[in-house]
Write a structure and sequence with these properties.
The chain has 684 residues and is of the alpha+beta class. The protein contains 22 helices and 21 strands. The chain has an 8-stranded mixed β-sheet, covered by helices on one side. The radius of gyration is 39 Å and the shape is elongated. It starts with 9 loop residues before the first helix and ends with a helix. The model is unreliable at 4-10 and 109-117 (pLDDT under 50). It binds adenosine-5'-diphosphate and magnesium ion (MG). Magnesium ion binds at residues 31, 34-35, 114, 119.
Length: 684
Amino acid sequence: MQTGKIGVTTENIFPIIKKFLYSDHEIFLRELISNAVDATQKLKTLASVGDFKGELGDLTIRVKVDRKKGTLTISDSGVGMTADEIDRYINQIAFSGAEEFLEKYKAQANGIIGHFGLGFYSSFMVSDKVEIITRSWQDGAKPVRWSCDGTPEYKIEDADREACGTDIVLHISDDSKEFLEDHRIEELLRKYCRFLPIPIAFGTEKEWKDGKEVDTGKDRIINETNPLWTRKPAELKDEDYQKFYRDLYPTQEEPLFYIHLNVDYPFNLTGILYFPRIKTNFDIQKNKIQLYCNQVYVTDSVEGIVPEFLTLLHGVIDSPDIPLNVSRSYLQSDSNVKKISSHITKKVADRLQEIFKNDREQFEKKWDDLKLFITFGMITDEKFYERAEKFALLKNVDGKYFTFEEYEKLVKENQTDKNKTLVYLYASDKDDQHSYIEEAKARGYDVLLMDGQLDPHFINTLESKLKDTRFARVDSDVIDKLIVKEDRKEVSLPADEQADLRLVFEGALPAQDHYWVSFEELGEGANPVVITQSEFMRRMKDMSAMSPTSSFYGSMPDSRNLVVNVSHPLVKSIIEAKSKQLSERLNEVNEKIKPVKAKVEELEKAQKGKKDDEIPQADKDALADAEKQLDKLEEERSTVLKDFGKNYKLVKQLIDLALLANNMLKGEDLSRFVKRSIELIKPE
Ligand code: ADP
Ligand code: MG
């Protein structure tokens, strides 16, 4: 037997770094440039407190590619390192010098990026060998060269360097040759370093002279050291914000609004957020916010850092309090990140409130574009709802806008039902539901337009928030029953007549769809037949259509109500015609039914209360026979009524008119309707 210790030493840490430290190999450049920026900022700090007495001079960080030698060099004029410091900060992995420095110079050291102590080693992900040539800022410091070829052995020797600062020389490995391409480095610098606070030079400026491109020999600075968000809002104009947006998102339309964030307590955060114009496909628009840490680009996937609905915004957030090199799940549980998230929500709501208050006209004009964003926020974020209910708008079918409070006032008196529930009527399509909207308006009701893609969810949210309020789509019932104001009287048509008339209409209904035929007395002025779909059923279907998993309601057939207005003269005429044409045949069948029915009843009575084994088989058979016979006769009777409905043009015509009012009559049915209409029109 043998026991031992699994050795975790630098020997086996190196390959791990190389492969797994960062899944994205390209971030080595971000890390090395961050270190160069840190070193430069440190020197500035030392100069500002008087510890460093020399000239600061040109602090530009330079990035150079030498394809012949296969090297990439990053040079800074920062604090540099002594051999002793190299030993402490470089040789001892995971010991972050930045942290130690911050501890010592807390008050003055703003904008030091490093936190972690593994950043430098990410260079081994792309290099066979790395050299550091550095000279410390301290008087009499000797320049040194450190080199390491990826094995844990390193070398330190004397070197030549005039001024303080550091060159990091990467000998790029064969499988990382892409990092010797100018355009690749340029792409990375643009991505990670675009807004770093120290000028970064890559290549030289070119100029057009006499039709030729000539090298000016001047450094080409690739970054903007004072990006807009670091400047004071008071110094900036609208145009500046618009221009910055165009720089960030060249292909986007102009934004609706912007918010300049500037927080220094209880955490540090700056940034500019834009409301883009979004109407549909909001998924595509997500992840446009860029997250920075002291002007170093971190990520553009901010989910978990800002509330979900804010991921629809565009812009920049910069906070030294958002930890850099950590996992997403850690970020989401970080208390700072949570605070930041709720603070941004508040700021966004405040800004919207301010625009609403100061310029309602402008706010209304932009509402249709803002709406998706605000309703998304109100649905998903309780706190945001509380703030937004003061400025969120409802739009009616006439294009008028109301706050929640204004709207309640508008409809309260006329649209409260007998149970004291306030009913908000809405349409989801102005054209399809036109006839219903008109009916509602004729009653003096107001109709909201809820045609946004999130409106079905939003309606649920509103119903749970607004007291004693219910939403009903205009076509979810006949107008009298949309808002029931008093107990309604029963329909005067007797039950058996209703049953017959139901069969007549069923005979004429399209076979593939499911309709429930019911009867109402809607008055002579109302339409003879109306098609409605219950609010509940429709919502369930809408919701399940939106959810990716199929559900019970989603698989149910579309079911609608066909409401027949028995007080309408045309319906009355159908009832009359039916009696006239069918009474003889129906009577015949009725006469046949009578004795069979009597027999069934008699047999049932005789067998009632008896146990199954007490009834003689002959009696059982007799009952079954009689029942079968009765069914057949009833069937015969139904067929008479259904055939009448199928062939009596007026029935079909009234149903088609109701379908037409719903924009539901299409194709062959529509052609037949047109033909039949022409036949039915009598010359004057
Ligand atoms: P971190 O930046 O998180 O501290 P790094 O591995 O990136 O970790 O760097 C380790 C330490 O090495 C730094 O804290 C710093 O003290 C030192 N260092 C790295 N690069 C430079 C540089 N260009 N100039 C001066 N010191 C540097
Ligand atoms: Mg670092």
